[in-house]
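Two records follow; treat each independently.
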Amino acid sequence: MQGGTMMKLITVEEHYDTDANIKQFNQYSEVKNNNPRQDQLKPDLVDFSNKIAYMDKNGIDMQVISDAGNSPQVLPDKYAVDGAHAQNETLAENISRYPDRFAGLATLPANVPDKAAQELEYAVTKLGMKGGIISGSVGGQFLDDPKFEPIFAMADKLGTTLYLHPGVITNDQKAMLYDSKAYSALGSTMMAGAMWGWHMEQGIQMMRLITAGVFEKYPHFKIASGHWGEFIPMFLERIDGFSPIITDLPLKFSDYYKRQVYLSPSGMFTAPQMQLVLTEMGAEHVMWSEDFPYVQDGSLTREFLEQADITDNQREAIAHGTAEKLFNL
């Protein structure tokens, strides 16, 4: 696959699940899965040989794998901690079968921050995970709440990466912002989710974290952010203009963002967004991602990057160089 001059390709927001977690999620989660294709995607989520076949067919050398669809994060506390631990053990087991094809991010029971910090340390130091993933706000609470500080303190101590992934927004948010008499219930669910709402909420999450001083206090951890940065790069200068009014942080918002945040497209293969992000961040802060199996763009995953109007140095950084550095691959 890497014969000739074919560039190495690593995609960094790719997902898995386990039968045990799906069962537990369906049984105990108050947040219902809103992906209408969840059942038909199950083989590609659970079976790692399916993933390998897909990667081989489409020229993907490595995936950085995480659980983001039905994360144990949203389970009641008594199930979340054990559920996250079980996910990480199973992921490590699967990676050990294909160590040169997969790297993993730990599922964190973020609703129990002390345990989440312990699980992050265990997963990184004992299981070889390359960081952790947090999916959306936690029970309607944003991560700038001081109760979540142990997670960032541990990530900082380890010098590791947290992937901030969107999650399902609260019913109250959905009702106020997206429900409408003018279109269907499915329409409002999609608008509140993958079409717009998830991403807007995740951008708010990032804005709050930096404004609250979390990056100032913890300069050694990194954040990976998909979907071209969940709206933030488009507003960096705007946010900088207002930040001095609301914080006394020594650096500008964009300084923290450009120092500690790494972006990828999550299957949103759109040239104008790519150019914006490269202009704001530089290729050394941009990676590639497809969002498999929720997005299955096949050969386009590689072709879009190969044909993009960028320099060869940028292409190599985005295809594999940035990810190799960030995740120590």
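The next record belongs to a different protein.
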Amino acid sequence: MTASTPASHAFDRAIALTAAGANLFKGNVDDSFQNMVGPFGGVTAATLLNGALQHPERIGEPISLTINFAGPVQLGAFELEAIPLRTNRSTQHWLLLQRQDGEVVTSGTAFFATRRETWSEQQHDMPTAPPADSLPRLVRGERNWFRNYDFRYVSGLFDPSRGDGNPEDAHSETLLWTRDNPPRPLDFASLTALGDVFAPRIFHRRQRFTPAGTVSLTHYFHADTEQLARAGDRHLLGQAHATRMHNNYSDQVAHLWSDDGQLLLTTTQVAYFKE
């Protein structure tokens, strides 16, 4: 048993949905995960996925999820449509739409499937890193959502005091341990949110604050329910980097591993940035 049971955890309250009709749920956005403009994108993505997870017609487990942030999500009530577009024998395709005041603010698609045991291989090994417990926890208070996560940086900390664009350290990579705070058993919803905990890559490359935000993200879930259960509430190791920043848009490629080296999630996203 963890310090906070899921029923009382801030994350579960943030993604909570109430059935309101066929393919329809209602929810509420409070300020517990507030970011620069609206809530932390990871919790919004987890909320949309939760619509499919909670749907009575759902089959299988999530394999991929794409979320497009169409506009700012405001504090207060929202409606979420979770529509199973097509269900086959072992696969299912979803359309996810979050609305406030009748307008779509976030849209998404998800692919679910019933996994079958097959030959398996992991080709992307976990980077070498000191144990999470040997590193100090970074306490940050600039945004509400920071308090809901435990960050332990191995390298690539955003530190504006370093100066802009040091040519000897010109990279955008971050390596860190992270988990929910207080600790919470890992599941698909929390893994979805954890996949978006990395700051915009432009912050790390230039080591200064730049107005920026995610426009679209895609998660690929490598883990099944049993693997997530084995990960428990322990830290995950996350690694993120950009491949190109050009004309006010930047990508990000990231991975999350359990502490025993199992790759759980691969994620990509595109973010805008301004000068």
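Discussion point: The chain has one domain: 6-114+132-273. How would you locate this feature using only the token line?
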